[in-house]
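Review this chain:
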Amino acid sequence: MTARLVLENGDVFRGVSFGADTETTGELVFNTSLTGYQEILTDPSYCGQIVTMTNPLIGNYGINDDDLESARPRVAGFVVREYSDFYSNHRARASLGSWLREAEIPAIQGVDTRMLTRIIRQSGAMRALISTGESDEKELLAKVLDSPGMTGLDLTREVTCREPYGWDDLDLTPYALPAYPGSPRFHVVVYDFGVKRNILRRLRAHGCRLTVVPADTPAPEVLAMSPDGVFLSNGPGDPDAVRYAVRNIGDLLGKKPIFGICLGHQLLALALGGRTYKLKFGHHGANHPVKNLLTGEIEITSQNHGFAVDPESLDPAHIEITHVNLNDGTNEGFMHKSLPAFSVQYHPEASPGPHDSDYLFKTFLRTLTGQAAIHAS
């Protein structure tokens, strides 16, 4: 079955469908990871986005039950150069294509993804559409132009949990990082703005008992749970549109230790009076270099975000910048100088990606015991 990818600038890419027979719109971005397509597809932070993989061959290890970052695929659509329906992995239970069709996610192969990536780099992330139908291309372009952009979108409401729940699962695969051997030492409330499962696994592995709550849970309800700390998760969309979360975080500052990742990092910055802005094409991949300004060490990191924190908007009398992106100099982390609150833009839990930054979970545990949040590996 043929498929078309239509960009808001009028470019049209033709290929072959290997996903669902349907039509979708979303923001088109590219991801530079060599592996990890299953984790990428199920990361709630990709809600509302059509993801292009720069690695040319995708699908050769199929789909397994261990590497899901949420219950189902969250992307709007998927674009690859070459799809392999034949998969070879001892854990695999299905092909990538059959899994996407079951989830009603459209996917297109046979696209020149190098050209597509260059277009995104030069023009920026843009609205796009994948269609397997017979509609006229002018009609498809009109649908693209009528679709919403990412700026101003609160997509957190689409991916957050509806009710609080506890999490006690550990990563028990042979590839897991070591876990804390005893019973959980701390109770942490996790704000679910689109949380990845491996964040929960890593917090649990470091000795935390977890209560996951919806994104709009009022601060007094969180405090009534008597947590030792509060975690702010990753998530999709524009952080400036999630003002209810910003207000709740502001009410929690100084009352409980806070650790934020990705969208949680941006929301913490907004709660502290900072600003965020839209990046041209975002950071999406498992190989982004970040410098820890407190130690001078370099971390290779997993990233997925289209917005960033403006470091100039953070009051230097109270906020210290701790991490910076070595590709473009954007902010990757900060800490409050007197309150137990810190955050990073990237993903220390990886999945996919390197484990260079797993030390940040230990940093969070230090804040739970009343120690300073020093970002040292």
User: Anything to note?
Assistant: DSSP finds ten helices and 19 strands in the chain. Residues 249 and 268 are 7 Å apart (CA to CA). The longest helix spans residues 113-123. The first strand starts at residue 2 and ends at 7.
